[in-house]
Design goal:
alpha+beta; about 25% strand; 4 strands
Length: about 110
């Protein structure tokens, strides 16, 4: 599984961002190949050069599907809106995502 991760930095116009967020989600959720998504609000930033206030994760089966989704009309529209409402104060990156539960991990101790 692969993820497109969006880290949003602190914004001067948070209310404008929140007003546009539902439209962004509507566009993202129409992207082909999207399996699921998750949004996390940062409650406390502990360390790092680029603080973020929100993280949004888009899950795809493969990196190629994630790239196609970004290049789709829906992906391009979502990207334009995100650029507009954040004024570029964000980071985007792909990850190769793996997950395991503790019960399975403990089998190998």
């Amino acid at each position: 599984m692969h993820k497109l991760v969006i880290l949003i930095e602190p914004l001067d116009e948070w209310q404008s961002f929140e007003a546009a967020w539902p439209e962004f989600l509507h566009q993202v959720e129409a992207m082909p190949g999207l399996r699921r998504e998750a949004t996390s609000r940062v409650e406390s930033f502990l360390y790092g050069a680029n603080p973020c206030i929100q993280m949004h994760e888009l899950f795809f089966d493969t990196l190629e599907e994630a790239q196609r989704a970004m290049a789709s009309p829906e992906g391009r529209a979502a990207g334009r809106l995100l650029q507009q409402v954040t004024r570029g104060r964000m980071s985007l990156f792909f990850t190769d995502y793996k997950e395991d539960n503790l019960e399975n991990i403990r089998k190998f101790r």
